[in-house]
Amino acid sequence: MALDILYFAWVRETIGRDQEQVDPPASVETVADLIEWLSQRSPAHAEALADRQRLRAAVDHTFADPAAPIAGAREIALFPPVTGG
Amino acid sequence: MALDILYFAWVRETIGRDQEQVDPPASVETVADLIEWLSQRSPAHAEALADRQRLRAAVDHTFADPAAPIAGAREIALFPPVTGG
Amino acid sequence: MIAIQIQREAFDPGALQADLEALGGGGVATFTGVVRGEGGLSELVLEHHAAMTTKAVRAIADRAAARWTLLGLTIVHRHGSLVPGDRIVFVGVAARHRGPALEACAFLIDWLKTHAPFWKRETFADGTTRWVEPRAEDDAAAARWGG
Amino acid sequence: MIAIQIQREAFDPGALQADLEALGGGGVATFTGVVRGEGGLSELVLEHHAAMTTKAVRAIADRAAARWTLLGLTIVHRHGSLVPGDRIVFVGVAARHRGPALEACAFLIDWLKTHAPFWKRETFADGTTRWVEPRAEDDAAAARWGG
């Protein structure tokens, strides 16, 4: 099923794009699985997603843990820890 | 020695004046002594100064406890607990 | 930079805040107290010990400046006759980071409530008047900052 | 009354504060974040997750409204390109008494720092750029309010 992936901040800069549409296999069940799967798409993906401690995610506009399931999700955003305010 | 006494809020209203000059005897050594001595000046003084728990004082523009000495002071203010802000 | 004004006149929080922002810090915290019109209140008179007030407020400000690293601190406190909706007091603090600004702002208003020589008299629509009693919560709020 | 604005445009804290004062409470607490010009900073760009930001900020506001008894709550957060001296964020809270206003104001800015999808990129006079790293103090400040 098509899934929109959004990238922000240095994740976006390193990958070189702010979004892409992907269709991961059924074995990709969680946010952590997705990050692992995306990191195999290109050397830039691998670099941007290498440091899992510095990555955060939102599933359909709600912050989510690495263990969060992605079944049924339409959009997943990957980004560094937020620095607003 | 002449001492200026200032009254504020309901202490002032009950006594009916906002200040007076007094010359207490040497036996009046502390703020508490002064309040006791002043309360004998008139029925209005006695009424205004009756509830010692609800009285506060400042000696020469600094908040002071009942036990604070008044020797050398030029002005003593008596008033209810403050309610600013 | 400590600025203290004890005055009858109204004041403009926006202008006071802009002066604090101009000090170059990352954050400005403010608190503005306003006269509530509850219970048919028609007037609030703030009496104060005119000769002592600025000194007492300055002592509170100095305590904040000693405790937190601040870039600027402004206190404006009105006295005289106020009506519902009027501003009574403004506390504004500029600091490099928000933590000290927010904490010092809370400290200043807590201590102004309990350590500045002001007294409030309320007049109601039916003509009755009442001196505002100190609130136990105010003493507790002030006490949490220590002596 | 919760008001949230996520915008590129500048804003006027004085006007935002006046709206909060008009709600009839006894106190309005505000915090305004400003771009510091330290270390030769020439530009600060705030990137955000446009489709998600308002929802995330609303969730923070709802949490404050559930925890404290408030009359009004305003959050304005800018995105886009800012320069030193520009305001970034405004948080304002009106309440009947000062305690809830001050606490909710501190909570809101602490949580905006750690629970809203914004990222800051600094550009310096020499042309170098750097993404702002989260500060451990910010996580600690947010954590003190509980989950």
Explain the overall architecture.
The complex is a heterotetramer, with two copies of chain A (85 residues) and two copies of chain C (147 residues). With 85 residues, chain A is of the alpha+beta class. Chain A contains three helices and five strands, in the order βαβααβββ. Chain A has helices spanning 9-15, 31-38, 43-48; strands at 3-7, 19-22, 56-59, 62-64, 75-79. The relative contact order of chain A is 0.27. The model of chain A has no long low-confidence stretch (mean pLDDT 97). Chain C has a single domain (2-143), classed as Molybdopterin biosynthesis MoaE subunit (Aldehyde Oxidoreductase, domain 3), CATH 3.90.1170.40. Helix content of chain C is 36%, strand content 35%. Chain C has four helices and eight strands, in the order E-H-E-E-H-E-E-E-H-E-E-H. In chain C, helix 2 (50-67) packs antiparallel against helix 3. The mean pLDDT of chain C is 96. Chains in contact: A-D, B-C, C-D. The interface between C and D is medium-sized, with 35 and 35 residues. Chains A, B: Keywords: Nucleotide-binding.
Supply database-style keywords:
heterotetramer, A: 85 residues, alpha+beta, Ubiquitin-like (UB roll), 5-stranded mixed β-sheet, 25% strand, globular, C: 147 residues, Aldehyde Oxidoreductase, domain 3, 4-stranded mixed β-sheet, 4-stranded antiparallel β-sheet, 35% strand, Molybdopterin synthase sulfur carrier subunit (chains A, B), MOCS2A (chains A, B), Beta-grasp_dom_sf (chains A, B), nucleotide-binding (chains A, B), ThiS/MoaD-like (chains A, B)
Task: Summarize the helix and strand pattern of chain C as letters.
Answer: EHEEHEEEHEEH
What gap, in angstroms, lies between the N and C termini of chain C? 23 Å
Structural class estimated from helices and strands of chain A: alpha+beta
How are the strands of the biggest sheet of chain C laid out side by side?
1-4-6-2
* Overall shape of chain A: globular
CATH hierarchy: architecture of chain C: Alpha-Beta Complex
Query: Any idea of the CATH class of chain A?
Result: Alpha Beta
